[in-house]
Amino acid sequence: MIHDIFILIYTLIKVVLITLPLLLFVAYLTYLERKIIGYIQGRIGPNRVGIYGLAQPFADFFKLLTKELIIPTASNRYLFLIAPVLALVPALAAWAVIPFSEGLVLSNINAGLLYLFAISSLGVYGILIAGWASNSKYALLGAMRSAAQTISYEIAMGFAFVGVLMASGTLNLQDIVLHQQGGILHWFWIPLLPLFFVYWVSAVAETNRAPFDVAEGESEIVAGFHVEYSGMTFAIFFMAEYANMILVSAIAALLFLGGWLSPFENIPVLDAWFDWVPGFAWLLLKTSGFLFLLIWLRATFPRYRYDQIMRLGWKVLIPITILWIVVLGFSIESHLGPWFTEERMAITHDTFVG
Amino acid sequence: MLLETIFFYLFAAGVVLSAVGVVFLRNPVHSALSLVLAFVFSACLWLMLQAEFLALILILVYVGAVMTLFLFVVMTINLDADIKKQTFVHYLPFGLLLMALLAALLLFVLKPAHFLSIGQPIIQDQDYSNVQVLGKVLYTHYVYPFELAAVLLLVAIVAAISLNPRQPSNKKTQNTEKQLYIKRADRVRLLSMPTEKKP
Amino acid sequence: MYLSTFFANATPALPEIALLSMTCIVLLADLFFSRLCPRIPYYLTQLALLGVICLSLCALNKPQTSAFFGMFMADPLSSLLNVFICLTSLFSFLYARSFLEETKMPLGEYYTLGLFSVLGMMLMVSSQNFLPLFLGLELQSLPLYAMIALRRSSGIASEAAMKYFIMGSLASAMLLYGISLLYGVTHSLSISEAAIIFSQGTATHNTVFACALVFIIAGIAFKFGAAPFHAWAPDVYQGAPSIVTLFLGSAPKIAMLGFTFKFLVQAMPTLQTQWQLFFIILAVLSMALGNIVAVVQTNFKRMLAYSSISHMGYMLLGLISGTQAGYAAATFYIIAYAFMTLAGFAMIALLSKAGVEAESIKDFQGLNYKHPWLAFLVMVVMFSMAGVPPTIGFFAKLSVLQALVQVDLVWLAALALIFSVIGAYYYIAVIKTMYFDQPEKSTPFPTLPLDATIAISVNGLLLLILGLFPSGLIELCNKVFL
Predict the structure, then answer these.
(1) Measured between alpha carbons, how far is C480 from A20 in angstroms, rounded to an integer?
(2) If you placed Cys at C424, which of A339, B59, C127, C386 could pair as Cys (CB 3.0 to 4.6 Å)?
(3) How many CB pairs under 8 A join A and B?
(4) B134 to chain A, minimum CA–CA distance in Å?
(5) Would the CA dihedral through A193, A198, A204, A210 be positive or negative?
(6) pLDDT in tens, C334-352
């Protein structure tokens, strides 16, 4: 009993160690976004609070914290308040299985990929409930759009995951990364290139980011599902969105770009030069690259029309994934090198056949 | 072991309470959300039995997809709770009678003594992967019912799509193909007209 | 490694696999070639059914072989039922074509769904495990719900689809609950394994078995449409377009009989005394209610619906006897019934004018003056349903009654006879309307499509010819139970 409680407390400490830096990252991601979009659009971005505006996230945070919480009279009070939490919790809970480096993971479960997928599919509830509980037409419209969009793109994303599962033969995220060992050409982005692309498009759609941000759609439905939210509740929605952005970027890095593995592996001179860099730093770098891409996309593309989003999801992305899974099946059966060589597949194959 | 027991009763109570909520909550949206909660709790129970694949698939498919669409529909059609209640009361005595009969029958039949003992669940070691074991059985021994289930889903898709209205004649929609192939000549007609003489 | 053994083991399921492949081809052909040739789904469908009939006929004389780890079993009984399932479906799809084209219903979807349903029926008679049996049942009924609702402009069809869907789901749920109880006791879903455990069942087990039996028989009776679980049948038969009614009234009943054999005869032979009692109640109620209520119907489809309820009652008599001869008689009865129902509803479908169906018995007034051949065929069908010699219906009734008398259930046989005399009244009333009433002047007679006319002639004459020379079919039915 005492042992159990000890383990519980130890785990809680680990959770805090993951969550706090994550939230800090979220705060600075908002700053980064404003800066980057500013430069892309020929502006400077926030530069008043602190040096280069570096204290801006904290200023925003305290502003939102002290603002009045407005709960619309005809709304459903409890659901209205629960909704933001429901949006944030899956975004944080998913980090439980993300390996930051070899062995550096909160919970090394065998069905990690499945867990990620299941948890990320829960995020839509925050939006749906917020939209309904607000008792506002714009909010409901946003929620409906978001629900349909998330469901549609989840399928394509799931098939992309299936491709990764086939290529690595395991659902354990750590093993998936280890399966990509051997340098930049051994990572899954080459054999799974179409799936990588599909994953990334669906990831952008799943996080409701531009150009798939019809759920918010400022210019059409004001702010969509969170139009009635103010103060801290709005801040939590905001945090959930950015935490999700970091999550999908980290997953992309783990599944397709070799996670914490160095890109210079097996390259004679560079390999030794960069030997000192910790695996965590590579993961951070790759994740940041994807985050930059997300922001870049937002600054570049106009919003999709709703029916175009549906057509892209159902008629383009899903057929691509199905086709590529067939191709992948053949290439794995023929042990196409350097990704699916016999000894590489044998690592996980033993457990299958044996 | 104690902690496990506590969690089991916690989750079990959660399942039962949310299931009761599904039936007795007045607002259909609340009922649906209650059902979501019941699914989540039963997934937790499955997790405790080391059936992680079933647990996660339950969350993924039922909570993540099916119930989302269900909520989608319930939220859009805005059911009137009062009408539902009137008919409910109307049939209540008969329903109660039936329920009592069924409950009595099941109480009589569903005794543990009537079923072969299942025994304690086997505690698997760290490397045990529920997903692999299930996959192996599903694609060998159970491949026949598995394929049948796939055909059933195909039928459901065909049925659902064929029941949709096909191209209503009064639908006003853009034809992208047509729009893309439009040429200037289709829209603008350039005329050469003699200039008017000034008086 | 698995793949090669898989294909080697799958050969007994060749008819089913062929049908599934053809169904997918029909689905795709409808998508890609229906502009070139709108009837291509229809032709392919009939081709597929003909092929499956041939394959099943080849398998008729083979000994029983199992596949898919014992979950599938092809034996003479399943092959025989398969042949007749496909044959009745072939006829019903043939009758459907002109109606579908007239009312502009989607041809491709209708036939694809129909083929899926046929596949489900074939699986229902040849699976050897509760799990695929149940899946087959669902596969059979799911397309039927959609086929009824396919005519979207008809409100009554949507209502019928809804009723059928809800009732059908309820029946499936009951059946599933019964199966789950059985599984709780036996820890096995395999029929052959379950049969062994049932035979050694102790007294405590028997309580659960009896309870499970209640649910299973209720589910089966729902699907058969036997009283007191018949309430959906008249509304669905009437509401659905006739072409769908003739499909769902014929082939699924044959499949359901195979399903019942699997569940009761093969899995629980030791519980015979228990399910016999249930079936006696069902049969008596069905015969009484079906025949008596049918007398007052003015709608022809509704009348046929009640008549089908009563026919289910007679068919159950064969099961009640619990002997090989009884089972063979039930099989013979259900095949005869399927062809009679086909012909009966096909008449309504044929006489429909521009999508308006000739539902009322009044629409048959003086048919003899307008189209004597059709009137003659209707007369044959009516005589056959009433069980008047020399039609097939007579021998069907005779054989079930014989089976009953052999096991000393004379009182039941006498009761059945009395009800069939009551039933004869309304069948003959239709004949009287056709031959002795004057036709209404104003209604023009619809032009009949040639293929359907030939089919209905073959169908009607089959009832007569099989009635004159029934020994072949009876022998066949007896042979598969040896």
Answers:
(1) 74
(2) C386
(3) 79
(4) 11
(5) positive
(6) 999 999 999 988 888 888 7
